[in-house]
Design brief:
Length: about 350
């Protein structure tokens, strides 16, 4: 163990080896001169003494080496113990840090999710209020158009008819009055049509099923489209809240077909069951690009109406091309939904 050996010990070891090997060399010299007895005497005396001295020195150094090795083992064991302790402490600190961080993240996520849920509920409630106000405005506007403007235009038409009868048959003034009266009648028809589109009275009087059939006839007449209508099942009486939302979704879907499809045909299917109402509106035209559910105020309004009803709406692409709007609305027991 050279690191623990002193210079004196090293000097003693070197001198012992030098004397021993010097005696060995002298022994071989004497033996080479055929002085056998002197060589044997030299072995028994001086060489044996030097060997004994060398053995004693080496034994002391070996004992010292053993002690140094034992001390080194103890130091290494202590170092390993401290390293192991530090590793356990580091592992415990890491686990604690991960646990604390995870707890903080989970707490933060819960708060964020709770806030998002609250905002979603508020948005849903606000959307419902906006749509309710919109429907009230449409209803009031339809009533004003029908009652106020309709009566005014009707009165104007009656007065023009009276004036027309008082004028001579072939007079130019009578022709002008007749032309003005025709314009008033056409305007009256347009006002009535606008009033019905804003809020059809048939929806309040005859329910959703008859309103859909009436609207599809009006749609074909006004746009020149051919609508293939299919009804499955018997439609229960559905309250005003569900009826107006389903009607508006159908209306917006067909208007989108007119604006974007580039075709003149549409397919409408309504399936009634005791638990659900399914509405499919389909065309085989250009279709909507990208993710249509996220684009356009009309499509957003359709999605919000479906959410207010607790239903689902999907915007799909049929195999034939184009767009399919699929609405599924749950119905309560008995089929009445106010």
């Amino acid at each position: 163990m050279p690191a623990t050996r002193t210079p004196a010990q090293q000097e003693m070891l070197n001198s012992t080896f030098s004397r021993f090997w010097g005696e060995v060399d002298h022994l071989w010299t004497v033996a080479g001169q055929d002085q056998t007895n002197e060589a044997r005497a030299l072995i028994r005396t001086r060489l044996e003494s030097e060997r004994s001295t060398m053995t004693t020195v080496i034994a002391r150094l070996l004992v010292q080496n053993s002690e140094a090795e034992g001390a080194a083992v103890q130091q290494i064991t202590a170092i390993y113990g401290r390293v192991e302790k530090n590793l356990y402490m580091l592992l415990a600190a890491v686990v604690a840090a991960i646990s604390i961080t995870s707890a903080l993240v989970i707490r933060h996520d819960r708060r964020v999710f709770a806030q998002l849920t609250r905002l979603s509920e508020e948005r849903k409630e606000l959307a419902g209020q906006v749509i309710s106000v919109q429907e009230d405005v449409f209803r009031n506007l339809a009533r004003e158009l029908h009652d106020e403007f309709g009566q005014v235009l009707t009165a104007v038409g009656v007065m023009l008819q009276r004036v027309e009868k008082k004028l001579p048959e072939a007079s130019r003034q009578r022709e002008d009055i007749h032309e003005v009266r025709e314009i008033a009648n056409q305007t009256l028809e347009r006002v009535r049509s606008m009033s019905q589109m804003l809020h059809p009275p048939v929806l309040d009087d005859y329910g959703l099923e008859n309103s859909i059939e009436w609207y599809l006839r009006q749609f074909e007449k006004q746009t020149g489209f051919q609508v293939h209508y299919e009804k499955i099942g018997i439609g229960p009486w559905i309250g005003d809240t569900v009826a107006i939302h389903v009607y508006r979704i159908l209306q917006e879907s067909l208007n989108n077909i007119v604006r974007h499809s580039g075709t003149t045909e549409a397919w409408v299917k309504v399936a009634y069951s005791p638990a659900t109402l399914c509405l499919d509106v389909e065309d085989h035209g250009a279709g909507l690009e990208g993710k249509p559910a996220r684009k356009g105020l009309g499509l957003i309004g359709m999605r919000e109406r479906a959410e207010l009803l607790g239903g689902q709406i999907e915007f799909q692409r049929p195999a034939e091309g184009g767009t399919r709007v699929k609405l599924v609305v749950p119905l309560p027991a008995g089929g009445v939904h106010e």
